[in-house]
């Protein structure tokens, strides 16, 4: 049982396609975008391997083109959530007992299907459903998801190979079992790769899963499910349901077979889940595994020795790629006064070159934020800044939702390091800058460390190696992913395991072996070849 005889060497990361003008991939992707726009998708749930349609539907519309209907998905109720749990538990024994190499083959095949047959499907769905430009979709929904599937097979084969030593006359071994029950995967809108990884990483370890994606990611989520089914995933192993989060939580967290949650989303929701699980702890057959990655208030700390162009590029990309809707997006920057004028002028000039519009126009760097609720929240932060004489908007500040949820990349400058947009997560294209005295670097490090409850990502930009060393050491608890002379986004599977601590989550590092350990339960087995036949030890004998 899962002995690790199947070994899968560390793969190379999936190559990123350029989508340059005239390229074959650009032509193919545009064709798929047009195909999705020309049809109205009818998206079912998948429970026990069957498509389930309820007739209670919600429209799917591109955030950048809200008048166009991509399709609709069927919403489930309590009966569907319970059916998903029942289907998962029914599939559990057979799936857990499947040879590891057979399970691995399913996910490796899914990776190949995504890399070839379905590459443009998954990218186009992400572009239209989540308003990502072609490059952001490629590095997320194609490359990162493919990497998750391939690397997790490699990591799991490495875990299974880890066995204890054996003393003379004794054979020891460890079996890595799945958890006893089902795992709930709750996935976000902002990364299709995360939506695919959270249920599959648990399933790869032999677990069965109930998967609830964000409503605003359903269009791409259902393609992942189709790929997994085509790759040979047995019925009931992963069950995809669309129902309200509180409803799913109430049912799953009250079930005695609940064995774990794999979550990416807001800190408040995660803390509520943790509290509910704690209150129900007496109901469960086993102590549930709680794994979550939540918010971030990610920083870029610029030292007086920094290269201005490096700092500007790190801020432009880190803050405004995918409209600042990455958990890792730069949202607060600390700039020394000796470089402030140059950095601000160059950064503002860069923002003026950023085109904003639909994802189908490949010349647009900026697209729409995910939905009206997010739009209104971000706009309120911008309006408050406009009305506050203590801060000023030095770039952007405009927004419009008549055609789509468009918000200009916006830079706020403040003289208060504790101004609200330096402290609270916004999850949009808003960067706040604070200028500090260049010779007070150690003081500003303390400010960076103590300003936010989060600790997801951060970056230091400096040519002075002593400054890099100081920031790295002093900010040891401030970011689970720390970047030197780079933007604080763009973690690559197998290269930078991703996750943060404090209010940013449990830091279980998606894209690494650490995460997979959370979905395994080890059993130690000792066999003695010549067992003792007398309880008496030598020390009991008289001299």
From TrEMBL:
Name the family. Belongs to the aldehyde dehydrogenase family.
EC main group: oxidoreductase
**PROSITE patterns from the entry?**
ALDEHYDE_DEHYDR_CYS (PS00070), ALDEHYDE_DEHYDR_GLU (PS00687)
Q: Active-site positions, per UniProt?
A: 293
Q: What are the record's GO terms for cellular component? A: cytoplasmic side of plasma membrane
> Any idea which GO molecular function terms this record carries?
L-glutamate gamma-semialdehyde dehydrogenase activity; proline dehydrogenase activity
Pathway assignment reads:
Amino-acid degradation; L-proline degradation into L-glutamate; L-glutamate from L-proline: step 2/2
EC number(s) on file? 1.2.1.88
Q: Which reaction does it catalyse?
A: L-glutamate 5-semialdehyde + NAD(+) + H2O = L-glutamate + NADH + 2 H(+)
Pfam families linked to this entry: Aldedh
What residues does the Aldehyde dehydrogenase domain cover?
A: 57-512
- Going by the entry's taxonomy, the superkingdom of the source organism is recorded as Bacteria
Q: Work out whether the entry's keyword set contains Oxidoreductase.
A: yes
Protein's GO biological process:
L-proline catabolic process to L-glutamate
The name this protein goes by in its record: L-glutamate gamma-semialdehyde dehydrogenase
Read off the SUPFAM superfamilies from this record.
ALDH-like
Provide the alphabetized UniProt keywords: NAD, Oxidoreductase, Proline metabolism
């Amino acid at each position: 049982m899962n002995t690790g005889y199947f070994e899968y060497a560390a793969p190379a990361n999936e190559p990123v396609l350029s989508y340059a003008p005239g390229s074959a991939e650009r032509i193919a992707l545009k064709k798929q975008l047009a195909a999705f726009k020309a049809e109205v998708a009818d998206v079912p749930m998948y429970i026990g391997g069957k498509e389930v349609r309820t007739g209670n539907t919600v429209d799917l519309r591109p955030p950048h083109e809200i008048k166009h209907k991509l399709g609709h998905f069927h919403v489930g109720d309590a009966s569907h959530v319970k059916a998903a749990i029942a289907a998962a538990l029914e599939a559990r024994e057979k799936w857990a007992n499947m040879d590891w190499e057979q399970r691995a083959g399913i996910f490796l095949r899914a990776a190949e299907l995504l890399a070839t047959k379905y590459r443009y499907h998954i990218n186009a769905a992400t572009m239209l459903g989540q308003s990502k430009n072609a490059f952001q979709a490629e590095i997320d929904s194609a490359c990162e998801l493919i990497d998750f599937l391939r690397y997790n097979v490699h990591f799991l084969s490495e875990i299974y190979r880890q066995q204890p030593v054996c003393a003379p006359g004794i054979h020891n071994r460890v079996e890595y079992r799945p958890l006893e029950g089902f795992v709930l995967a709750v996935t976000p809108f902002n990364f299709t790769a995360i939506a695919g990884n959270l249920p599959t990483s648990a399933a790869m370890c032999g677990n069965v899963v109930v998967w609830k994606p964000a409503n605003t990611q359903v269009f791409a989520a259902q393609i992942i499910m189709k790929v997994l089914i085509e790759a040979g995933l047995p019925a009931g192993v992963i069950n995809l349901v669309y129902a309200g989060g509180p409803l799913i939580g109430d049912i799953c967290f009250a079930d005695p077979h609940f064995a774990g949650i794999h979550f990416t989303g807001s800190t408040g929701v995660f803390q509520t889940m943790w509290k509910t699980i704690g209150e129900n702890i007496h109901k469960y057959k086993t102590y549930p595994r709680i794994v979550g990655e939540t918010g971030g208030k990610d920083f870029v700390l610029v030292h007086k020795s920094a290269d201005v162009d490096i700092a500007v590029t790190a801020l432009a990309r880190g803050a405004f790629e995918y409209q600042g809707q990455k958990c890792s997006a730069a949202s607060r920057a600390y700039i020394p006064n000796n470089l402030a004028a140059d950095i601000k002028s160059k950064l503002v000039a860069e923002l003026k070159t950023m085109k904003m519009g639909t994802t189908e126009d490949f010349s647009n760097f900026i697209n729409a934020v995910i939905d009206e609720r997010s739009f209104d929240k971000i706009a309120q932060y911008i309006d408050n800044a406009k009305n506050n004489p203590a801060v000023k908007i030095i770039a952007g500040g405009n927004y419009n939702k008549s055609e789509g949820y468009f918000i200009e990349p916006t830079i706020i400058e403040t003289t208060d390091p504790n101004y609200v947009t330096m402290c609270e997560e916004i999850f949009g294209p808003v960067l706040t800058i604070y200028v500090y005295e260049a010779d007070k670097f150690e003081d500003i490090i303390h400010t960076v460390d103590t300003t936010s409850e989060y600790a997801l990502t951060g970056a230091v930009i400096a040519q002075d190696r002593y400054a890099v060393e100081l920031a790295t050491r002093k900010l040891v608890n401030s970011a689970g992913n720390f970047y030197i002379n780079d933007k604080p986004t763009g973690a690559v599977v197998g290269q930078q395991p991703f996750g943060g601590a404090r209010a940013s989550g449990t830091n279980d590092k998606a894209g690494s072996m650490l995460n997979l350990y959370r979905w395994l339960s080890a059993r130690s087995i000792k066999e003695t070849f010549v067992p003792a036949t007398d309880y008496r030890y030598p020390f009991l004998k008289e001299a």
